[in-house]
Protein backbone atom coordinates (compact mmCIF):
# COMPACT_ATOMS: atom_id res chain seq x y z
CA UNK A 1 0.00 0.00 0.00
CA UNK A 2 1.51 3.30 -1.08
CA UNK A 3 1.61 6.38 1.09
CA UNK A 4 -0.19 9.44 -0.35
CA UNK A 5 2.05 11.17 -2.88
CA UNK A 6 0.35 14.57 -2.48
CA UNK A 7 -0.42 16.37 0.78
CA UNK A 8 -4.03 16.25 1.88
CA UNK A 9 -5.74 19.22 3.52
CA UNK A 10 -6.41 19.48 7.23
CA UNK A 11 -9.51 17.34 7.86
CA UNK A 12 -10.27 18.76 11.30
CA UNK A 13 -13.54 20.73 11.71
CA UNK A 14 -13.32 24.36 10.51
CA UNK A 15 -13.02 27.16 13.04
CA UNK A 16 -15.90 29.10 11.50
CA UNK A 17 -18.92 28.27 9.38
CA UNK A 18 -17.84 30.73 6.66
CA UNK A 19 -14.62 28.93 5.69
CA UNK A 20 -15.09 28.87 1.92
CA UNK A 21 -12.09 26.61 1.30
CA UNK A 22 -14.35 23.69 2.26
CA UNK A 23 -16.49 24.25 -0.84
CA UNK A 24 -15.91 21.82 -3.74
CA UNK A 25 -14.03 23.88 -6.33
CA UNK A 26 -12.78 22.45 -9.62
CA UNK A 27 -9.14 22.96 -10.56
CA UNK A 28 -7.32 22.41 -13.81
CA UNK A 29 -4.12 20.55 -14.59
CA UNK A 30 -2.85 17.38 -12.95
CA UNK A 31 -2.99 18.52 -9.35
CA UNK A 32 -5.55 16.54 -7.31
CA UNK A 33 -8.82 18.27 -6.40
CA UNK A 34 -10.01 18.07 -2.81
CA UNK A 35 -13.52 18.20 -1.42
CA UNK A 36 -15.15 17.30 1.88
CA UNK A 37 -17.72 14.60 2.54
CA UNK A 38 -19.83 15.89 5.41
CA UNK A 39 -23.41 14.76 4.72
CA UNK A 40 -24.46 11.89 7.07
CA UNK A 41 -25.57 9.51 4.31
CA UNK A 42 -22.48 10.17 2.19
CA UNK A 43 -20.22 9.68 5.23
CA UNK A 44 -21.87 6.36 6.02
CA UNK A 45 -21.56 5.16 2.40
CA UNK A 46 -17.86 5.99 2.41
CA UNK A 47 -17.24 4.14 5.67
CA UNK A 48 -19.14 1.08 4.39
CA UNK A 49 -17.03 1.14 1.22
CA UNK A 50 -13.85 1.19 3.31
CA UNK A 51 -15.11 -1.90 5.13
CA UNK A 52 -16.29 -3.76 2.01
CA UNK A 53 -13.04 -3.14 0.14
CA UNK A 54 -10.93 -3.99 3.21
CA UNK A 55 -8.94 -0.83 2.57
CA UNK A 56 -5.84 -0.48 4.72
CA UNK A 57 -6.11 2.36 7.23
CA UNK A 58 -2.99 4.37 8.11
CA UNK A 59 -3.30 5.81 11.61
CA UNK A 60 -1.06 8.52 13.03
CA UNK A 61 -0.98 9.50 16.72
CA UNK A 62 1.05 12.28 18.32
CA UNK A 63 2.06 11.74 21.94
CA UNK A 64 4.75 13.36 24.09
CA UNK A 65 6.27 15.11 21.06
CA UNK A 66 6.59 11.81 19.22
CA UNK A 67 4.67 10.42 16.27
CA UNK A 68 3.34 6.85 16.24
CA UNK A 69 2.05 5.02 13.15
CA UNK A 70 -0.27 2.02 13.10
CA UNK A 71 -2.07 0.06 10.40
CA UNK A 72 -5.40 -1.73 10.38
CA UNK A 73 -8.66 -2.16 8.44
CA UNK A 74 -12.35 -1.77 9.25
CA UNK A 75 -14.02 -5.08 10.09
CA UNK A 76 -17.44 -3.67 11.03
CA UNK A 77 -19.41 -0.41 10.72
CA UNK A 78 -21.46 0.02 13.90
CA UNK A 79 -24.00 2.68 12.96
CA UNK A 80 -25.83 2.39 16.29
CA UNK A 81 -22.74 3.34 18.31
CA UNK A 82 -21.33 5.51 15.49
CA UNK A 83 -17.93 3.89 15.29
CA UNK A 84 -15.81 1.56 13.17
CA UNK A 85 -14.57 -1.64 14.77
CA UNK A 86 -11.02 -2.28 13.55
CA UNK A 87 -9.02 -5.42 13.00
CA UNK A 88 -6.03 -5.74 15.32
CA UNK A 89 -3.62 -2.85 14.97
CA UNK A 90 -0.09 -3.36 13.69
CA UNK A 91 2.41 -3.22 15.33
CA UNK A 92 1.14 -4.85 18.48
CA UNK A 93 2.56 -2.33 20.98
CA UNK A 94 -0.51 -0.06 20.60
CA UNK A 95 -1.88 -1.14 24.02
CA UNK A 96 0.89 0.84 25.71
CA UNK A 97 -0.37 4.03 24.08
CA UNK A 98 -4.10 3.56 23.49
CA UNK A 99 -5.54 2.77 26.91
CA UNK A 100 -8.17 5.49 26.50
CA UNK A 101 -9.64 7.62 23.74
CA UNK A 102 -7.00 9.56 21.79
CA UNK A 103 -7.03 11.89 18.80
CA UNK A 104 -5.84 10.25 15.58
CA UNK A 105 -5.33 11.16 11.91
CA UNK A 106 -6.49 8.46 9.47
CA UNK A 107 -5.70 8.10 5.76
CA UNK A 108 -6.86 5.44 3.31
CA UNK A 109 -7.32 4.81 -0.41
CA UNK A 110 -10.37 4.03 -2.53
CA UNK A 111 -10.42 3.59 -6.32
CA UNK A 112 -12.07 7.01 -6.62
CA UNK A 113 -9.48 8.82 -4.52
CA UNK A 114 -7.50 9.14 -1.30
CA UNK A 115 -9.22 9.84 2.02
CA UNK A 116 -8.11 11.58 5.18
CA UNK A 117 -10.01 12.41 8.36
CA UNK A 118 -9.50 13.32 12.00
CA UNK A 119 -11.27 11.33 14.72
CA UNK A 120 -10.63 9.50 17.99
CA UNK A 121 -9.45 5.95 18.60
CA UNK A 122 -10.27 3.96 21.73
CA UNK A 123 -10.14 0.35 22.97
CA UNK A 124 -13.29 -1.63 22.19
CA UNK A 125 -15.38 -1.91 25.35
CA UNK A 126 -15.19 -5.45 26.74
CA UNK A 127 -12.51 -6.64 24.30
CA UNK A 128 -8.88 -5.65 24.80
CA UNK A 129 -7.79 -7.04 21.41
CA UNK A 130 -9.53 -4.47 19.22
CA UNK A 131 -10.02 -0.72 18.87
CA UNK A 132 -12.74 1.52 17.50
CA UNK A 133 -12.69 4.71 15.45
CA UNK A 134 -15.45 7.22 16.13
CA UNK A 135 -17.34 8.38 13.04
CA UNK A 136 -15.61 11.53 11.76
CA UNK A 137 -17.48 14.78 11.26
CA UNK A 138 -16.17 14.96 7.72
CA UNK A 139 -13.74 13.26 5.34
CA UNK A 140 -11.35 14.99 2.95
CA UNK A 141 -11.24 13.22 -0.41
CA UNK A 142 -9.22 13.73 -3.59
CA UNK A 143 -10.87 13.76 -6.98
CA UNK A 144 -9.06 11.46 -9.40
CA UNK A 145 -11.42 11.56 -12.35
CA UNK A 146 -10.76 13.29 -15.67
CA UNK A 147 -13.63 15.69 -14.87
CA UNK A 148 -14.43 17.29 -11.55
CA UNK A 149 -17.52 15.60 -10.09
CA UNK A 150 -19.84 17.67 -7.90
CA UNK A 151 -21.17 15.81 -4.81
CA UNK A 152 -24.79 16.91 -4.56
CA UNK A 153 -26.43 18.21 -1.40
CA UNK A 154 -29.45 19.91 -3.00
CA UNK A 155 -32.75 18.12 -3.48
CA UNK A 156 -33.84 20.52 -6.27
CA UNK A 157 -32.01 18.57 -8.98
CA UNK A 158 -34.08 15.60 -10.16
CA UNK A 159 -32.98 12.74 -12.40
CA UNK A 160 -34.85 10.21 -14.52
CA UNK A 161 -33.18 7.05 -15.80
CA UNK A 162 -34.55 5.77 -19.12
CA UNK A 163 -33.66 2.37 -20.62
CA UNK A 164 -35.24 0.21 -23.28
CA UNK A 165 -37.27 -1.66 -20.66
CA UNK A 166 -37.81 0.82 -17.83
CA UNK A 167 -38.10 4.49 -16.87
CA UNK A 168 -38.16 5.86 -13.33
CA UNK A 169 -37.03 8.79 -11.20
CA UNK A 170 -33.86 8.09 -9.21
CA UNK A 171 -31.72 9.94 -6.71
CA UNK A 172 -28.65 11.59 -8.21
CA UNK A 173 -25.55 11.42 -5.99
CA UNK A 174 -23.06 13.42 -8.04
CA UNK A 175 -22.33 14.37 -11.61
CA UNK A 176 -19.79 15.99 -13.90
CA UNK A 177 -19.14 16.58 -17.58
CA UNK A 178 -17.90 13.00 -17.74
CA UNK A 179 -20.68 11.10 -15.96
CA UNK A 180 -22.84 10.81 -12.87
CA UNK A 181 -23.69 8.60 -9.90
CA UNK A 182 -27.25 7.43 -9.25
CA UNK A 183 -28.88 5.60 -6.35
CA UNK A 184 -31.70 3.10 -6.95
CA UNK A 185 -33.96 1.27 -4.55
CA UNK A 186 -34.06 -2.56 -4.81
CA UNK A 187 -37.28 -2.55 -6.87
CA UNK A 188 -35.81 -0.19 -9.44
CA UNK A 189 -32.50 -2.06 -9.59
CA UNK A 190 -34.31 -5.34 -10.27
CA UNK A 191 -35.53 -3.88 -13.58
CA UNK A 192 -32.01 -3.26 -14.86
CA UNK A 193 -29.79 -6.01 -16.30
CA UNK A 194 -26.46 -6.45 -14.58
CA UNK A 195 -27.49 -5.04 -11.17
CA UNK A 196 -27.65 -8.22 -9.16
CA UNK A 197 -26.60 -9.16 -5.64
CA UNK A 198 -22.87 -8.58 -6.14
CA UNK A 199 -21.54 -5.86 -3.85
CA UNK A 200 -19.54 -4.30 -6.70
CA UNK A 201 -19.31 -5.24 -10.36
CA UNK A 202 -18.50 -4.00 -13.84
CA UNK A 203 -21.03 -4.99 -16.53
CA UNK A 204 -19.47 -7.12 -19.29
CA UNK A 205 -21.24 -4.94 -21.86
CA UNK A 206 -22.02 -1.28 -21.03
CA UNK A 207 -25.76 -0.72 -20.71
CA UNK A 208 -26.85 2.15 -22.94
CA UNK A 209 -29.40 4.42 -21.31
CA UNK A 210 -30.54 8.00 -21.05
CA UNK A 211 -30.36 10.36 -18.07
CA UNK A 212 -32.79 13.27 -17.90
CA UNK A 213 -31.74 16.02 -15.46
CA UNK A 214 -34.28 18.62 -14.32
CA UNK A 215 -33.61 21.75 -12.28
CA UNK A 216 -36.45 24.28 -12.11
CA UNK A 217 -37.37 24.95 -15.77
CA UNK A 218 -34.15 23.46 -17.19
CA UNK A 219 -34.25 19.93 -18.63
CA UNK A 220 -31.24 18.12 -20.11
CA UNK A 221 -31.38 14.71 -21.79
CA UNK A 222 -28.01 12.92 -21.93
CA UNK A 223 -26.98 9.60 -23.48
CA UNK A 224 -25.04 7.49 -20.98
CA UNK A 225 -23.38 4.12 -20.44
CA UNK A 226 -23.63 2.09 -17.23
CA UNK A 227 -20.05 1.35 -16.18
CA UNK A 228 -20.22 0.30 -12.52
CA UNK A 229 -22.75 -1.02 -9.99
CA UNK A 230 -22.42 -1.45 -6.24
CA UNK A 231 -24.96 -2.84 -3.76
CA UNK A 232 -25.04 -1.26 -0.29
CA UNK A 233 -25.85 -3.17 2.91
CA UNK A 234 -29.30 -1.52 2.79
CA UNK A 235 -29.77 -3.18 -0.66
CA UNK A 236 -29.81 0.22 -2.32
CA UNK A 237 -27.79 0.09 -5.55
CA UNK A 238 -25.32 2.73 -6.71
CA UNK A 239 -24.75 3.16 -10.44
CA UNK A 240 -21.76 4.78 -12.08
CA UNK A 241 -22.62 6.17 -15.53
CA UNK A 242 -20.37 7.69 -18.17
CA UNK A 243 -21.34 10.28 -20.76
CA UNK A 244 -19.46 9.05 -23.88
CA UNK A 245 -20.13 12.13 -26.04
CA UNK A 246 -21.57 15.57 -25.41
CA UNK A 247 -22.57 17.88 -28.27
CA UNK A 248 -21.22 21.43 -27.75
CA UNK A 249 -24.65 22.98 -26.90
CA UNK A 250 -25.40 20.21 -24.38
CA UNK A 251 -21.92 20.53 -22.91
CA UNK A 252 -22.42 24.28 -22.38
CA UNK A 253 -25.81 23.73 -20.73
CA UNK A 254 -24.38 21.03 -18.48
CA UNK A 255 -21.48 23.28 -17.48
CA UNK A 256 -23.97 26.04 -16.62
CA UNK A 257 -25.90 23.59 -14.45
CA UNK A 258 -22.70 22.52 -12.69
CA UNK A 259 -21.78 26.14 -12.01
CA UNK A 260 -25.25 26.87 -10.61
CA UNK A 261 -25.01 23.91 -8.22
CA UNK A 262 -21.51 24.94 -7.10
CA UNK A 263 -22.85 28.41 -6.27
CA UNK A 264 -25.67 26.82 -4.26
CA UNK A 265 -23.15 24.79 -2.28
CA UNK A 266 -21.02 27.87 -1.66
CA UNK A 267 -24.06 29.73 -0.30
CA UNK A 268 -25.06 26.73 1.80
CA UNK A 269 -21.65 26.36 3.44
CA UNK A 270 -21.46 30.10 4.14
CA UNK A 271 -24.86 30.01 5.85
CA UNK A 272 -26.68 31.92 3.11
CA UNK A 273 -28.36 29.09 1.20
CA UNK A 274 -31.95 28.19 2.04
CA UNK A 275 -33.29 25.13 0.17
CA UNK A 276 -36.58 25.72 -1.58
CA UNK A 277 -39.59 23.59 -0.76
Descriptive notes:
- The chain is 14% helix and 40% strand.
- With 277 residues, it is mostly beta strands.
- It folds into two domains: 20-143, Electron Transport, Fmn-binding Protein, Chain A (Pnp Oxidase, Chain A), CATH 2.30.110.10; 150-269, Thrombin, subunit H.
- β11 and β12 (179-184) form a beta hairpin.
- It is elongated.
- The relative contact order is 0.14.
Care to give the gist of this entry?
By secondary structure, the protein is mainly beta. It has 3 helices and 16 strands.
Q: At the third CATH level, what is the topology name of the largest domain?
A: Pnp Oxidase, Chain A
**Percentage of β-strand residues:** 35-45%
Mean pLDDT comes to: 77
Largest sheet: 6 strands, antiparallel, barrel
Structural class: mainly beta
The level 1 CATH classification of the largest domain is Mainly Beta
SSE inventory with pairings:
Elements lengths: L32 E5 L2 H13 L3 E8 L2 E13 L4 E4 L15 E9 L2 E11 L7 E4 L4 E5 L6 E2 L6 E5 L4 E9 L3 E6 L1 H4 L10 E2 L5 E9 L2 E14 L5 E6 L5 H22 L8
Antiparallel strand pairs: 1-8, 2-3, 2-5, 3-4, 4-7, 5-6, 6-7, 6-8, 9-11, 10-11, 10-14, 11-12, 12-16, 13-15, 14-15, 15-16
Amino acid sequence: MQEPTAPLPDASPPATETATHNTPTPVTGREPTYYYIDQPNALLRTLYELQQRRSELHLRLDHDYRQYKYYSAAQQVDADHRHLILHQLRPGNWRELISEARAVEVSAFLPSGALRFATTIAPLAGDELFCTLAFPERIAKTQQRAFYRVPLVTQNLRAELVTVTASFEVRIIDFSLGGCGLQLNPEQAAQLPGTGAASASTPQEPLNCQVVLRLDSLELSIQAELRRTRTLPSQQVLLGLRFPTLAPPLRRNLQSLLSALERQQLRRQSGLYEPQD
